[in-house]
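Data card: per-record layout.
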Amino acid sequence: MENLVSTIIPVYNRADMLREAVASVLAQTWRPIEIIIVDDGSSDDTVHTAEDLQTLHPEITHVIRQKNAGPGVARQTGVEVAKGEFIQFLDSDDLLLPNKFELQVAGLRSDADAGISYGKTYTKLDDVRLNEPAQKSGDAFRNIFPTALTGRIWETATPLYRSSTLTEIGPWSGKRQLEDWEFDCRAGAVGIKLQYCNEFIAEYVNHSGDRLCHAWMTNPNAMRDRISAYIAVLAHAKKAGVPRESPEMQKFARSLFWMARNAGSYGLPKEANELFVLARDLTINPGRDFKIFSIATKILGWKISCRLAEKFIGRQQ
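The structure for this 317-residue chain is written out next.
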């Protein structure tokens, strides 16, 4: 539907935060809007909260309940029923600023070649709003690559998409770790152009509650998802034509080496070896650390070698 902005909110066990997220959409200066809430198998009263909100606000066109499948699948569930010309994804613990849609729709209207508009995003940490823009949202880029190889440009609430752009990108993956970064990079692989809005438009809330992004530290399946996301990002960067010799690609090679050590320490030798080979082959003039580490894994095994590497190479990327 022309001019309609559809906001998709996946939610899991966050009734109170959901109310705030919905309120931030309803406060938009832009109309028309619709809100689609996808309850991802909550075990508390979140779905009832969503249904109560729907009775109060006709802008909430759908409340969908599904078995827990992760945020990417929940977002895609929302995409399937969304009718908007523009699509907004909003995690249930984040907020939109009131003029977000107005600014970004105008930006996309003025730039026919762009498929995604993004702008500056606040971070709220321990109830304190930081002045520096989150991620790289304070910088203007026309293309997602090569910058996305060094980390996300924005938080999930930051971009506004043309619905036609989502068709080009393809559906969200079933990964539960880094699915948002992989989605961004898939957009970069198909050459989606960016329109930059030099205003603060959203707020990322870094809270102390349960966060799915931390699951990889204790959950093997989450760790495997994280590994597969890194491998997918590399494939997307190659498809986009990022040169091997570029600083961003070389930095990413170090990230792959770091992930290999994480996987090895975790007890995932097959995955660790795959990451290590990718990192080594991607690196221009691999140093002694690669050679020594390769020998160590053959003699000592992955787990011991990776724990020793933490002392001599370091824990960081």
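Known properties of this structure: Residues 243-312 form one domain. The mean pLDDT is 93.

See the next section for split statistics.
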